[in-house]
């Protein structure tokens, strides 16, 4: 009798593992459906609650170089990967992310960032502070919204507020606003 109970419990456990695996896979988004995200994006502004701020960039031989984010997809023998890299105010950076939910009609969704890695060059304190804020906002990003403004593709990436915005900007959350290069 005990042996039958063990076999039944193992079968139930196997079904639970199978069903949990199926649930996990159902939240994965196909690579083709997020192709609008891929490409190189230039940081244009930062929204912190209800304050719009301009990003800092890098002066390189008298030429301003903006902060960039490049999103790509690649596939190895085991899985598809969504990669990111770019140039911040001081360092180059790279990492990975996953898209957990994407609404193709509304062009918005949910994502998860893997901790970002970067080169370790030093710079002026104000640029290092700017870079630290940028990396922090990028790593905390859980929401994204794609749109077109004045004929240019835009990507809002961050943590959007669930509260109703009051006024022009209101408290829409903390996010980075990019324009496609």
Question: How do the strands and helices of this protein lay out in sequence?
Answer:
Elements: H1 2-26, E1 39-48, E2 51-53, E3 58-60, E4 63-65, E5 68-75, E6 80-87, E7 92-103, E8 108-113, E9 117-118, H2 125-139, E10 143-149, E11 152-160, E12 173-180
Antiparallel strand pairs: 1-2, 1-5, 1-12, 3-4, 5-6, 6-7, 7-8, 7-9, 8-10, 10-11, 11-12
Key descriptive features of the protein:
globular; alpha+beta; Lipocalin; 2 helices; single chain; 181 residues; 8-stranded antiparallel barrel
What distance separates the N and C termini?
69 Å
DSSP helix fraction: 10-25%
Structural class: alpha+beta
Biggest sheet character? 8 strands, antiparallel, barrel
Q: Strand sequence of the main sheet, in spatial order?
A: 1-5-6-7-8-10-11-12
The CATH topology is given as: Lipocalin
Our count of helices gives 2
User: Averaged pLDDT, please?
Assistant: 78
CATH class category label: Mainly Beta
Q: What general form does the structure show?
A: globular
The ordered H/E elements are: HEEEEEEEEEHEEE
Stretches where pLDDT is under 50 for at least 5 consecutive residues are: 3-27, 165-170
Number of strands: 12
- In angstroms, what is the radius of gyration? 21 Å
Strand content: 35-45%
- How many domains? The number is 1
**In the CATH hierarchy, what is the architecture at level 2?**
Beta Barrel
Characterization of this structure:
With 181 residues, the protein is an alpha+beta fold. The protein has one domain: Lipocalin (Beta Barrel). It is built from two helices and twelve strands. It has helices at residues 2-26, 125-139, and strands spanning 39-48, 51-53, 58-60, 63-65, 68-75, 80-87, 92-103, 108-113, 117-118, 143-149, 152-160, 173-180. The strands form two sheets. The chain has an eight-stranded antiparallel beta barrel. A hairpin with a 4-residue loop joins strand 5 (68-75) and strand 6 (80-87). The protein is globular and about 40 Å long.
């Amino acid at each position: 009798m005990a042996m039958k109970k063990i076999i039944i419990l193992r079968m139930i456990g196997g079904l639970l593992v199978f069903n949990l695996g199926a649930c996990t896979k159902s939240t994965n988004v196909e690579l083709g459906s997020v192709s609008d995200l891929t490409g190189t994006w230039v940081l244009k502004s930062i929204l912190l609650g209800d304050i719009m701020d301009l990003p800092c960039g890098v002066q390189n031989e008298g030429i301003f170089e903006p902060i960039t984010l490049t999103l790509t997809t690649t596939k190895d023998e085991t899985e598809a990967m969504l990669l990111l890299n770019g140039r911040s105010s001081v360092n180059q950076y790279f990492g990975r992310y996953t898209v957990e939910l994407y609404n193709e009609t509304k062009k918005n969704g949910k994502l998860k960032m893997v901790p970002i890695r970067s080169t370790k060059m030093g710079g002026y304190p104000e640029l290092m502070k700017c870079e630290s804020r940028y990396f922090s906002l990028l790593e905390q990003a859980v929401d994204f919204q794609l749109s077109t403004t004045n004929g240019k593709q835009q990507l809002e990436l961050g943590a959007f507020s669930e509260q109703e915005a009051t006024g022009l900007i209101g408290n829409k959350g903390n996010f980075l606003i990019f324009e496609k290069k």
